[in-house]
Design goal:
Chain lengths: 428, 428
């Protein structure tokens, strides 16, 4: 039986679309059928415009080939502004809000030929209060967050690609829980204009896909780095040197992550070098928490002044934490961040990438919590590119995986290594 | 003759207002009278709401004291969103645009008791195409940009304080041309949520005032660092150690900046140490240009796709420059930026602050160009806090001054030193 269109990898579909061997309309209709079947249970979307998407698909089929994403359906986390779709940021404060312009990342994807099919569920203002989306592997479990709908939709083959953002662990964690590839590019390589701002030091747009190569294709458009879309990137001439980095937060890992960890050790034997974090990088998890709380509390100054009744208790608590941090302490935390970012460069002196845990374990039961981003916080603070690789199952049968981390700005090298590593993890 | 209310320093007015020895309404009415007299010539505002401001002043006079800016009229560059005033970003694309929420920096100022009187002229999307504002010292000259209206309004005593932003030299240059204090805080200390994003690596909100102490007061609210509002900060127990840093761009300085430079050398004799930039910091001006062009071209993806006819030729040219830079080159520039930011810390090993040129010279004649930000580019790229100190006049009688630069995150130390230095420059 051939692969159904909605399960095609994005890079394969893109190649067929560019050669006119596949029509954007056919691909889209297959994705729409999948969505019609699954969305009532999964609840990945806050808004879906099938008619506009079909019009766009037909226009793409009859016009010139636009770019790398020509004809690919795309889901957009509802934290990105869209000029033609309401954008609610996961908050009742913004119910029905219609922005005037597309976020820059959305405009870049559209320029490259992507078909924005709809807006996907985000947690409240990309924080901890959950949305309605469920985990496609078991509807009783959280999909993770804050990019909940994007991760779930891609995992469930509703769409090949979707946009998300990460401030603590909002790309890597839902990717882990839903069993897809999640890609957080190097900080500031993807424009944030038109994304609801929470933390200037941390917020990073990125995306979800079902393969490393697909995530790299999306990354090529988002970062403008053509190397990420070069097929040669995925035919490496040598194996990557992989740093084996349990991280100072390892004690939080549960049995499922531990099992995946040692499974990876076997699969990658001979290519691993133990890497210990320098002392300067150990306290970063705590610093990230403080930076996020301080900056979120201040970025949401309008909302907390005028719409406090429409903020969840969880977000209100984070804001209160942030307001209790002094500006002097924040300055100190930012200074430490800059020094740590410089120190992190030396992590890659003898390895190409680092392998580290993505999450505590499988997706937690229930929808009340989207899980703990503890294993993502320090990498986000460092601004390093990260990619989650799903390859195992936990005791409840839900996905488990690990993340690979690259040097700042070396996203193409990270993705090349991730492709190599992922193949071995899936085989091993 | 007593100082007219509209010429009071902000910190003095704030003290009187907090003690109820001055009413917000009286102060505001005096500013409004000044605006009525001068605005037809100066054209600093795109929008002014005297009625709402008076309502707010009366409410503040009859309610509790709000915070550090209680009762102070504030101008807001029209690049910051305001929930109750249209926000046009200096572009016909956004004429009449009404945002849903206040930018975070605006909300913080309002929370601290500031009265937002109106929106001030920005150049087109905070870039080089000028607005209609004129220089208050000579209407035939540019006020500088992109924060043109804010600088001119504060210089002309229409308002004690105003918000601006800097991506290349958009705070320091108009401050220099209009003869006011301009303050660019350390990067990411002031939230950018709700400010039209041009360059994530560079964009920095800040403000204008007529004294260092006033700028620090505004900075205390914007950064949340209470030290900036502590009167003890301005009673230093020792003189600052000042690095004497002509900068690699010194060849661009004209006779007026040169004269100011040597005047400062005399006034600060005994406190100056020559500082040479390390080689790593020399190419930063060029890197800043490339980073700005690349990021602006991508941040404005929606506008260039859908509203190209409403972009000026100047902005279109910058966008074209940016689109011609590869993503790989940009990654390299960001890596260089991170290394330079770490290297810059050592500049402050033996000095507290650096003294450097702010502008080529006086404000150029005519309104067609807002001048060249060459002397600001590298400090903006480094993310260091900067403050412009006006103290001299050029050959045409227009203001000239210099900027003081602090270590990252050490804004309070910078402002303390700036207060000390400014007093000596004005005396000497």
């Amino acid at each position: 039986m051939p692969t159904p269109l909605h399960r095609l990898e994005a890079w394969q579909a893109a190649r067929l679309l560019a050669r006119r061997e596949l029509s954007a309309e056919d691909l889209l209709r297959d994705c729409l059928a999948r969505i019609a079947e699954r969305e009532p249970e999964l609840r990945a979307f806050t808004y879906l415009d099938a008619t506009a998407a079909l019009d766009r698909a037909v226009a793409l089929d009859h016009g010139p080939v636009h770019g790398l994403l020509h004809g690919l359906p795309l889901g957009v986390k509802d934290l990105f502004d869209t000029a033609d779709m309401p954008t609610g940021y996961g908050s009742p404060i913004y119910a029905g809000h219609q922005p005037k312009a597309d976020a820059a990342a959305v405009a870049l994807c559209r320029e490259a030929g992507a078909i924005v099919l709809g807006k996907t569920v985000t947690t409240e203002l990309a924080n901890m209060f959950p949305g309605v989306t469920r985990n496609p592997h078991n509807l009783a479990h959280t999909p993770g967050g804050s990019s909940s709908g994007s991760a779930a939709a891609v995992a469930d083959a509703m769409l090949p690609l979707a946009l998300g953002t990460q401030t603590a662990g909002s790309l890597i964690r839902p990717a882990a829980f839903c069993g897809v590839v999640g890609y957080k590019p190097s900080h500031n390589r993807v424009p944030r204009a038109g994304v609801k701002g929470l933390s200037d030091t941390l917020d990073t747009p990125g995306g979800f896909a079902r393969s490393v190569r697909d995530a790299a294709l999306l990354g090529a458009v988002l970062t403008g780095d053509a190397r990420l879309a070069d097929p040669a990137l995925f035919e490496p001439t040598r194996a990557p040197r992989i740093g084996w980095c349990q991280s100072p937060d390892w004690e939080h890992a549960d049995a499922d992550t531990e099992a995946a960890w040692f499974q990876a050790e076997r699969a990658l034997a001979g290519h691993l070098l133990a890497v210990e974090l320098p002392q300067a990088l150990v306290p970063l998890t705590g610093i990230q928490k403080a930076v996020q709380a301080f900056e979120t509390a201040r970025s949401l100054s309008h909302e907390r002044r005028h719409h406090a009744a429409h903020l969840s208790q969880a977000l209100q608590a984070l804001i209160d934490d942030g307001l209790n941090i002094t500006g002097a302490a924040h300055a100190h935390n930012l200074q430490a961040t800059w020094l740590a970012r410089a120190a992190a460069a030396s992590l890659f002196d003898s390895v190409d990438v680092l392998l580290a845990p993505s999450s505590i374990g499988e997706a937690p039961l229930g929808l009340a919590s989207t899980g703990d981003p503890v294993f993502c916080r320090s990498w986000t603070l460092l601004g390093l590119p990260c990619v989650h690789l799903p390859f195992a199952r936990g005791q409840r049968g839900l996905p488990v995986g690990l993340q690979l981390i690259g040097a700042f700005g070396d996203d193409h090298r990270l993705m090349a290594a991730a492709h190599w590593v992922h193949a071995r993890l899936l085989a091993g």
